TrEMBL record:
Keywords: Membrane, Transmembrane, Transmembrane helix. This is Guanylate cyclase domain-containing protein. It comes from Paramecium primaurelia. Pfam families: Guanylate_cyc (PF00211), Ion_trans (PF00520). It is found in: Membrane.
Length: 816
């Protein structure tokens, strides 16, 4: 009992479905992916970002021990998460995100006050025992605070995890909702009595599997996230370097100096010398420093001991390059409390009672401008580099593949057959865009193979137009060369070979199609034991006048006609030389059925018009040709058996062969084929297939080449011939001499026999059958068992070698 055929499994080209229960999850994976663990990690992440600032802003020193405990808890949990991720997540260890997680976790140490005290980054709190200890504690605290704020920035990266976790939950909810709705639609779509069965047998999508993130989405998301992180961290770390405070100490405020001088001058305990010395000391202390004093004056400037101090640079300073400090000296208070001389008080300028000091901030302004230039350049570089990085990812992963897809689709729309020259991108780890691109090529190739050259217009028109597919297009009248091939004894071979008959036919078909394609033809139909081959002529090379074809490029049609016959000659040679075909001569099954079995093929070649288009309906179509001329090619092939030759050629095609090629072709009869009342001349070419040497086995000859490389070799051979034809350099006679197969198959070509046969046949056509009989018999001496000679003699024998009274130079074929 044979097994029941299995229903085909659903195709998952992009491996987007994760099968549930396909592997048993480890305890580590269960813990890491659990909702409870993720919620805890997300809460601790938010705490790690803001906890230390909350400690300082809202609590006193005594609460630090509690925050230390929370920070240690964060440190333990984050470390646990990293260890679990290393175990569970493939490729995580030593990855970009591994190092970010590790650094952000280690940075938590700086929030633990006990750790900072142990390493000397902060004091122990409270009062220091001496001023030196107090200074050291202050410096350590400032260093620790700065380091903590800088390193803590890395923890911002953990926000990405919070976002991804929330986003994953949303996607899971959406997926489940969609699955439920699909399940509901499936159930409600069937008849009520089948609902129970559907509910039992159709699992929801969430039970079968879930859709995972695509490779291209993950790559683009991860790459963008990494680069955003790098850019943000670079800005956060480097932007402070462009602050002038990093390089120049801020100027001491002159407001404080002016205020101190006023208080001293108004104090009852101050002496005149104290005020005068203070005035001079301010000028001395602020001279010769980076932010030097450029102006100092008081309302007492008219008195000799308090002159206005003005530096030579003062007139050249801009307003924003001055640090101005002014404080009002009260005249009434000065009179009551001061010990200043009366002359000084009398010279008090009541209209300008302010003590004014101005420091030069020129150096800081210069540095600020330089840093601003550098900062602008840096930000421009970061933005440019960031844009380039982001656009590179989108270009590499999405936009360029999309452009390639568009380009390929446009090429296929313009010439569907060109897809056979497109290569599939070979990459085992390719992402979805590459797979889609390859799928376009594969679908296009299958279309080209399925529709063939005759379906080119159907594919092109339907791809270009908007709306639904319409394969039933009007036919197009074209002129072409039609070739028909038939495998001899196919019925017997099928009965004997059974399942192996497919390999048998396809081995022959491979040779037939390859040779026809190489010589500018195209396979149209595979009809079991027969093949219809077509050489379409270019539309610009001919035109129709009523039913007559007017040729505009006779050189082109002559070359194409030569190629059609050469391709059949190559096929005839290949089936008698190729190891895979010769192997059937040793097949015991075939030899038991047919003694001395050899693979044989009959050929028919004809030229004429035909209607190219879709044959069938909207359920199934075949792109082919309808015409009496197609039938003529088939009849010619069938007639080869009567003449004992492998090929018959019509006169419509013969007249287009190049004159040099015609020398190898002989006129063997003039007949009306069955079903036609128009006489046609029949031609053939003698081909010697006896004792041909076996070809090298391609599997050995090309064993080092890949399948794609072999296709390239075949394509290159075709392109060489195509280039010769387009340049007008292809000469059939030269090709017959240069090509090994053609040289072998023409071995033994006899010009003397050709001349005798030609004269005999001409006498036959002229009605001089007595002469014709004698010369045909002479021809048989030169070439015994010649099929065409025996066929003509047999037809003459039917009338006792007497010309019929109504002889018109042709006879009727009695067989189809």
């Amino acid at each position: 009992m044979t097994d029941q055929p299995q229903a085909p499994a659903d195709v998952d080209i992009f491996q987007q479905t994760i099968e549930k229960n396909s592997h048993r999850a480890s305890i580590f994976e269960i813990v890491l992916e659990s909702t409870v663990f993720q919620v805890i990690i997300n809460i601790l992440t938010l705490y790690a970002l803001f906890g230390d600032d909350i400690r300082v802003a809202a609590f006193r020193l005594s609460a630090d021990i509690v925050f230390d405990a929370l920070n240690i808890t964060c440190l333990i949990m984050f470390s646990t998460e990293i260890i679990l991720s290393v175990i569970v997540k493939e490729g995580y260890f030593l990855s970009f995100f591994f190092w970010l997680d590790t650094i952000s976790t280690i940075s938590l140490l700086l929030d633990i006050s006990l750790f900072n005290q142990a390493v000397g980054l902060s004091g122990a709190g409270g009062q220091a025992k001496n001023t030196a200890g107090l200074a050291r504690a202050g410096r350590a605290s400032r260093v620790g605070t700065k380091a903590g704020r800088v390193v803590r920035l890395v923890r911002l990266i953990r926000l990405v995890k919070v976002y991804k976790s929330a986003n994953k939950d949303d996607e899971d909810k959406v997926s489940k909702l969609i699955a439920q709705r699909r399940q509901k639609r499936k159930v409600t779509a069937v008849e009520p009595q089948l609902q129970d069965r559907v509910e039992q047998n159709i699992p929801a999508q969430s039970e079968e599997g879930e859709t995972k993130e695509s490779k291209v989405s993950k790559m683009l998301s991860d790459s963008t996230t990494k680069k955003v992180i790098i850019v943000v961290l670079a800005l956060l770390f480097l932007i402070p370097l462009f602050s002038v405070d990093y390089f120049v100490s801020p100027p001491t405020s002159m407001l404080m100096q002016a205020q101190q001088f006023v208080k001293l001058a108004e104090s009852e305990s101050s002496t005149y010398d104290d005020v005068k010395n203070a005035y001079n000391q301010i000028i001395i202390d602020h001279s010769g420093i980076d932010n030097y004093i450029v102006l100092f004056t008081s309302p007492l400037y008219n008195y000799k001991d308090f002159p206005i101090y003005e530096h030579d640079d003062y007139p050249n300073l801009r307003t924003d390059e001055q640090d101005v400090g002014a404080y009002t000296l009260d005249y009434e208070t000065l009179i009551k409390t001061t010990n200043l001389p009366n002359d000084a008080i009398l010279n008090f300028d009541k209209e300008n009672p302010d003590v004014v000091g101005i420091l030069s901030t020129r150096q800081a302004a210069m540095m600020t401008s330089i840093l601003s230039i550098i900062r602008t350049i840096f930000v421009s570089i970061v933005l440019t580099f960031g844009a380039m990085m982001f656009s590179k990812d989108s270009n590499d992963l999405a936009l360029r593949p999309l452009e390639r897809m568009i380009d390929k689709i446009n090429k296929i729309a313009n010439d569907p057959q060109i897809v056979t020259e497109m290569a599939v991108i070979q990459n085992e780890n390719s992402n979805e865009t590459v797979k889609i691109e390859n799928t376009i090529v594969k679908i296009g190739t299958l279309l080209a193979l399925g529709f063939g050259d005759a379906g080119t217009e159907i594919i092109r028109i339907n791809m270009k137009k908007q709306g639904d597919v319409d394969p039933m297009l009007p036919g197009i009248k074209k002129v072409a060369i039609y070739g028909f091939c038939d495998i001899r004894n196919f019925t017997d071979a099928t009965e004997v070979l059974q399942e192996d008959v497919m390999v048998f036919v396809n081995n022959i078909g491979d040779i037939v199609h390859t040779m026809v394609d190489r010589y500018m033809g195209a396979a149209n139909k595979n009809i079991g034991d027969a093949f219809l081959l077509v050489w379409k002529t270019r539309p610009e090379t001919y035109s129709f006048e009523e039913d007559n074809v007017i040729w505009h490029d006779k050189q082109y049609i002559s070359t194409l006609s030569d190629c059609a016959l050469i391709s059949f000659m190559k096929i005839q040679c290949k089936i008698n030389r190729e190891p895979k075909i010769l192997a059937y001569r040793q097949d015991k099954r075939l030899q038991a059925r047919m003694d001395n079995y050899k693979v044989k093929i009959g050929f028919g070649l004809h030229m004429g018009w035909g209607i190219e288009g879709a044959i069938g309906s909207n359920y199934k179509i075949d792109a082919s040709y309808l015409s009496p001329n197609v039938n003529m090619a088939s009849r010619l092939e069938a007639a080869t058996k009567q003449y004992g030759v492998p090929i018959l050629i019509s006169e419509q095609l013969y007249e287009h062969f190049s004159p040099e090629f015609q020398e190898y072709i002989r006129h063997i009869d003039r007949v009306c084929v069955k079903g036609s009342n128009i006489p046609v001349s029949l031609y053939t070419i003698d081909m010697n297939v006896d004792n041909l040497p076996q070809s090298n086995d391609p599997s050995v000859k090309y064993k080092e080449f890949t399948k794609e490389e072999l296709k390239m070799i075949l394509r290159q051979k075709k392109l060489e011939i195509k280039e010769q034809i387009e340049n007008g350099e292809f000469k059939a006679v030269d090709h017959l001499q240069e090509n090994k197969d053609l040289r072998l198959i023409l071995t033994g070509f006899k010009k003397d026999f050709m001349e005798v046969f030609r004269k005999a046949f001409q006498a036959y056509l002229d009605g001089d059958w007595k002469t014709a009989r004698a010369m045909f018999q002479e021809a048989l001496k030169l070439k015994p068992n010649d099929g065409p000679t025996e066929a003509v003699l047999h037809s003459m024998e039917e009338t006792n070698y007497q010309k019929p009274s109504d002889w018109k130079g042709y006879r009727e074929l009695t067989e189809k």
